[in-house]
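job 3f2a | input accepted
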Amino acid sequence: MSETVDIKSLNEKVKQQSLAIKGLLNEVSKVIVGQNYIIERMLVGLLSDGHILLEGVPGLAKTLAVNTMAKAVSGDFKRIQFTPDLLPSDLTGTLIYDAKQCNFNIKKGPVFSNFILADEINRAPAKVQSAFLEAMQERQVTIGDVTYPLPDPFLVLATQNPIEQEGTYPLAEAQVDRFMLKLKLDYPNEQEERAILDRYSTRKKIEINSVLTLKDLEEAKKAVDDIYVDEKVKNYIVDIVFATRKPEKYNLKELKNLIAFGASPRATINLNLAGKALAFLNGRGFVTPEDIKDIGPDVLRHRILTTYDADAQELTSDDVIKQIFDGVEVP
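job 3f2a | predicted structure (331 res):
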């Protein structure tokens, strides 16, 4: 009975604290039309300290979404355009010699911001990607002999353009695994396109109010940490991840020749964290299997490497993930 009482009180606490986050969602929606999916997933990343890799054609409001989110949360925003001539120091910062003082001063790079849009990350060479992804993972940067912590919150939204691959340096699988979520963004529908036309028919700017402080966000993240995950749901998460490695164990023999490499342990951790953040956004103090099903494709699609057989059958990692979720028993 005590567990039931705890969950009830946790539910009430989460409902109260999630209202502020929903206010943030409404504020961002004043500017962004029809991209509730990306906004919600950005909030999942924000609440669970996870970075996001976004694949979509140009013009789908990726920059605008991150900039608007930063304004609504009173955070710093930087947009970094990744190019072939970019250097690691252009991101992290460097030491500048002061001739008058005869010493070196630190000049911090744009990575020292709360919200970062890494535009077309695959256009920068591997050494830049490596330096940037290391900063994402360690949440700190070393310049000279001194290590500096990155600000909190620290959310990276990195984009890839799927239609123009000339002059790109594809991210290695080990690097892509550092991202909590990979999102695929599509064009708006006709009604949303019309709403965009009406909203932006003049040059008048839409004012964004700061509805959440960084302290409020920290309190919300603490509440997410307290979200209850039942043992059965934890086992379900492990089963889903193991089904990507040993599908035959889950009566999914047909997938054995379609998966070259399954999901890493990071997938298990991130499914749990993202599921808790999604439950929080839905005003619940506990995670359900539906939360895992909902967020699962975004956590797994970049962590499953398909085989040539899958390519020959024109099957993507999303197709494989759907079969896994359909085949693994739900608690």
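job 3f2a | The mean pLDDT is 84.
job 3f2a | closed
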